[in-house]
Each structure stands twice: as structure tokens, then as C-alpha cells.
Amino acid sequence: MTVSAGSPAGAGPTPSDPPGPIPPFRYQALPMRVRFGAGELAALGEEIDELGLSRVLVLSTPEQAGLAHRVAELLGDRVVGVHPHAVMHVPVDVADAATTAALDAGADGCVAVGGGSTVGLGKAIALRAGLPVVAVPTTYAGSEMTPVWGLTEGGAKRTGRDPAVLPRSVVYDPELTLSLPRALTVTSAFNALAHAVEALYAPDASPIISLMAEESARALTAGLAGLRTDDPGVRSRLLYGAWLAGACLGATTMGLHHKLCHALGGSLDLPHAETHTVLLPHVLAFNAPAAPAAVRALNRAMGHDHPATALRDLARALGAPTSLAELGVAREQLPPIAHQAVTGLYSNPRRVSEPDVAALLDRAHDGVLA
Ligand code: NAD
Question: What is the pTM of this model?
């Protein structure tokens, strides 16, 4: 079985591409407000007041319960409780318990403080109970910018799009990312980069999204390179790049890379951000011949002629995993993933066959680029 190729151009237009007509596009702006800046957490109460909320439930993972209580203290009597029980991939029973907690407390909204897992729990409550979400992201995953929800049951993850789950407001405060462990900082930034890369060749890219994706790749790769220095602006640049990448993710349809990460993560229970980090250079190397405009944009953003190699080298220099073997994957586990990756129709700039994906996964297993 093969997967259909995306638009013939294989990439969204950008004004810096060679002259020629701008291809037709559609662009839907998403209705949300963003605040960005060091110390902006202090404005969260104002943000909640402006949304007309007065009884919010603060959500976090158990590991970030301390931060959730700090936020609750900051918000004072606008808060009806703290629910620090978010878990990766939003298991249905966790979503059920959180929805019950929100309704029992008479909450009129949720404040999700954390990474994609916590924002995901806020979205699950929004989906079931219609309560609006305010997000305070502390990783670079980007879920806060998308109307995409996910729920896991019996080892299988269901996802869907619903405008009701899109956070009404997002407060990005780079100071909250200072506690993110170095290893997760690197892999989470690669997770964000993957959104930007796939948006550049998405079938529904538009000039504004292509500009955002290129700028995102610029900010994220500069931020990652800066992690080896003492530059105090690094965390803010990474979070800025992650915001742009999340916006690209929310506005476009992702391709082979996200399909493969979903299949690997779901079937083998692999860690989300690390899986993105390992696969991204391999998928980019595979798609590059069919996505010349995306490659030009990445060359400009990264100041490098071979973005796939540059990404792999950057990951390696920062001590991130660069092979599936490092994530504990055995070669024998890969054939069913290759099959899954070509099942169901999705868009990708280069036509994909099962032997193609098998070969790509084989290279990713060993960490050897094509
Ligand atoms: P995560 O939210 O699971 O966070 C990983 C760990 O890091 C958690 O223990 C968390 O408490 C901790 N952590 C987060 N920020 C921290 C900080 N600043 N300091 C210290 N510890 C911190 O991981 P993630 O990668 O952000 O999110 C992954 C999940 O998000 C996956 O389930 C993925 O499918 C989902 N996701 C969904 C979308 C979407 O659009 N729906 C987009 C991206 C990711």
C-alpha cells in the first residue's frame, strides 16, 4: 500500500522563494490570545478576569504539583481547587476523574500548568464538560496552540479536532521552563522543530504559516545551539520558537514524521519527545527531494546546506538520542510499524511505500542517515 503524495510543490510558498505566482491557499486564524514574556505568569489573574472566569481548577502532573499550588496561590479566590493528576497521553480514567473533580467543584474553567500531558487533560475536560481552558505551557510540545485532543484507552490513542478544546488564552513565561531538565529541554525543542518542518511541506501550508515555520526553525535551532553557552536569552528564544511551531501544528496537516511517531509511540510506548528527536532527521532526509521549498526555508533558518544532517549533528552534540536502538527498540519490532505507517491515507510530499518506511526505520534504528 502506498501513501498519497501531498501538493506537487511539496511545500508552502514563502515570499523569499524565487519569483512566481503565489499558489492559492486557505488560512483560518484560530481564536485565542497569547501573552509572552519573562514574569508574565503574574498577569495570569488578569487574563482569567478578562475571560470572565471566577472559579478555575488548576491542573498539573504530580511532578509539577508544587508549581500548580504556587499558581493557585497567585490566583487567590478565583481558584476552586488543584488537581495534580495529569498523565502522559491522557488515559480515559484520568480524564473521567478530572472531569468529575471539575464539575463537583463547580469550576467554570481550567488552568493547565505544564507540558502537553497537562494541556491534554484540560482539553479532555473541555471536550466532555465544555469548560474553557487557559494554558500555561512549561515545555515546547505545542499542544496549547491546537484544537487537537487525544485520549488513550486499552493501549490505543484516539485523537480528534474540536474548536472547543483550543485554549482561550495562553501565557508563555520562559521563567517556567528554567526547571525543565536539560535532556527534556533538548528533545522537547526537537518535538517543536518537527511541527515546523512538517508545516513547511504541509498540503495546507499558506504564506503566513510558512513564514512562522521558518522563523520557528530559526529560533529553535539557535536556542538549541545556545544551550551550550550561558546566553540568558536562550530559554526565551526556545519558547518563542515553540509557540510558532505550535501555531503551525494547529494550522496544518502533518505528514510521515508525525504518523511514524504516533505509530511508534502508541505501539511501543516510547517517550514522546525523544521519539521525535530520533526520527526527524531521517524523515527530513527522505522527504527533502520532494520538498525543495521546505529545504530552502530550513537552509535559510539554520544556515546550513543539509538540514537533516545539521539536525542530527545538533542532537548528537547536545547528548540527545539519535537512534531507535538507544530508546530500547529492537529491529524485530519495526516491520509492524512500517505497515501501520502506510495504513490510512494521509498527505506527505513524497510518495511512501512500505519498503521505503521499513528502510527509513532501519536507518533510524542504527542512527545512520541516508
Ligand atoms: P509532558 O507534559 O508529559 O511532560 C513531561 C514531564 O516533564 C512531566 O513529568 C512534567 O511534569 C515535566 N515537566 C514539564 N515541564 C516542566 C518544567 N518546566 N520543569 C520541570 N518538569 C517539567 O511532556 P510533553 O512532551 O510536553 O507532552 C507530551 C504529550 O503531549 C504527549 O501525550 C503528546 O501526544 C501530547 N501532545 C499533544 C499535542 C496536541 O496538539 N494535542 C501536541 C503536542 C503534544
Answer: 0.94
